[in-house]
Design a protein that fits this description.
By secondary structure, this protein is α/β, with parallel strands linked by helices. It folds into two domains: 12-91 and 166-264, Rossmann fold (3-Layer(aba) Sandwich); 94-165, no CATH class. The chain is 32% helix and 24% strand. The protein is built from eight helices and ten strands. Strands 6-7-8-3-9-10 form a six-stranded mixed sheet, sandwiched between helices. Helix 7 packs across helix 8 (245-257). The protein is globular and about 45 Å long. The two termini are 32 Å apart.
């Protein structure tokens, strides 16, 4: 697998701002109300990389769905660059844990799905090929999903998202099912893509070290219904090194906020 080189130079800022204002949400389960989010407020600056941590099932992925516009919040408001989020939009693209590639389409055709749906594919083929090159998959353009490793399939999913030039890239545990070595490589590639493209990134992960390695800022949620328990900047330059004492210190602090410090 080819790893992309991290670039310490100043990067472009092409992302959008995101305002989450006193957002609450609940689900109706057989007539019973299940509160999931409780007055969550966050302001994300253009080009930030924000990682969301919290107990399993606390509502992190639900918040991503609201940011994507896949459903409206029960209360509160979400805004992209000051405009209300009222539904899905190409400027906000989600990458899920499963690549969800169409098995009967080649890698190139899977990446081309967005432009095809928007009716712009005839003029966007060069853009599709550029994006495949960006994630190191040019040689696999004509391969089918069953011919790819797990890491390669997830890179196709990233390319499919990036071909739309999203202002906000929404990442719902995109590396969660990869083996440990592939996951480390993909973390470095994801940082490189973010640095080169300048989008705003919102990541849900259960891996504290992953959050600290990738993000400029980490938000920790409470148990369900989720509220913001802590919100701090990761004051480390890129490229980051996993043996950095400051990273270890932040990991201990984060685990403490998650109630897991006793085991470290």
């Amino acid at each position: 697998m080819v790893a992309l080189t991290l670039q310490p130079a100043a990067r472009p800022i092409a992302g959008a701002s995101l305002a989450i204002d006193k957002v609450s949400h609940a689900f109706d389960l057989d007539g019973s109300v299940l509160p999931v989010l409780d007055h969550v407020s966050l302001d994300v600056k253009p080009g930030e990389f924000v990682a969301l941590l919290g107990p399993s099932g606390c509502g992190k992925s639900t918040l991503l769905r609201l940011v994507a516009g896949l459903e409206p919040p029960s209360a509160g408001a979400l805004r992209e660059d000051g405009k209300p989020i009222t539904g899905p939009h190409p400027s906000r693209v989600v990458v899920f844990q499963d690549p969800t590639l169409f098995p009967w389409l080649t890698v190139r055709d899977n990446v081309a799905l967005g432009p095809r749906a928007q009716g712009t594919l005839s003029s966007q083929w060069p853009r599709v090929d550029e994006t495949l090159a960006l994630v190191g998959l040019s040689k696999f353009a004509n391969a089918y999903p069953h011919q790819l490793s797990g890491g390669m399939a997830q890179r196709v999913a990233l390319a499919r998202a990036l071909v739309n030039d999203p202002s906000i890239l929404i990442l719902d545990e995109p590396l969660g099912k990869l083996d440990s070595l592939t996951r480390l490589t993909m973390q470095a590639e994801l940082v490189s893509l973010w640095q080169r493209k300048g989008f705003t990134a919102i990541l849900v992960t259960h891996d504290v070290e992953e959050a600290l390695f990738l993000a400029t800022r980490v938000v920790i949620f409470s148990d369900r219904p989720a509220s913001v328990k802590a919100d701090f900047a990761v004051d480390l330059p890129y490229p980051r090194h996993r043996g950095d004492p400051r990273l270890a210190e932040l990991r201990r602090e984060s685990l403490g906020l998650l109630g897991l410090d006793a085991s470290w």
